[in-house]
Amino acid sequence: QVQLVESGGGLVQAGGSRRLSCAASGNIIRINTMGWYRQAPGKQRDLVADITSGGSTNYADSVKGRFTISRDNRKNTVYLQMNSLKPEDTAVYYCTAYLIASVDGVYWGQGTQVTVSS
């Protein structure tokens, strides 16, 4: 069974930092693009950042210069380093990955809450 498991969410003060991790496990042949989305209450789920297997990155304008996405292909893990956090960054953060596995496709993690207090 293929799954993505996130960790690292929690409560942080404005201006602080937090690092999210997401590990993919199961019968995986290859992982293509990995990324992070977030969803605030009453809002749609939006892309935060993604990274290709070759390391090319893409960021939402709202997080450019503050967040950094990276991955460790040996560990099947993607990270999101979040610095200079703002209250508007408060959301549930979801990990996603396009997996070549027993069933190819886009997989999602269960989500991890990040709350930024002012």
How is the biggest beta sheet arranged? 7 strands, mixed
Structural class: mainly beta
Please tell me how large the radius of gyration is. 14 Å
Shape verdict: globular
Number of separate helices: 0
Output mean pLDDT. 96
- How much β-strand is present in the residues? over 45%
- Ranges where pLDDT stays below 50 over 5 or more residues in a row are none
Spell the H/E element sequence. Answer: EEEEEEEEEEE
Number of strands: 11
Helical fraction: under 10%
Please give the alpha-carbon distance between the first and last residues.
40 Å
Q: Notable features of this structure?
A:
single chain; 118 residues; mainly beta; four-stranded antiparallel sheet; globular
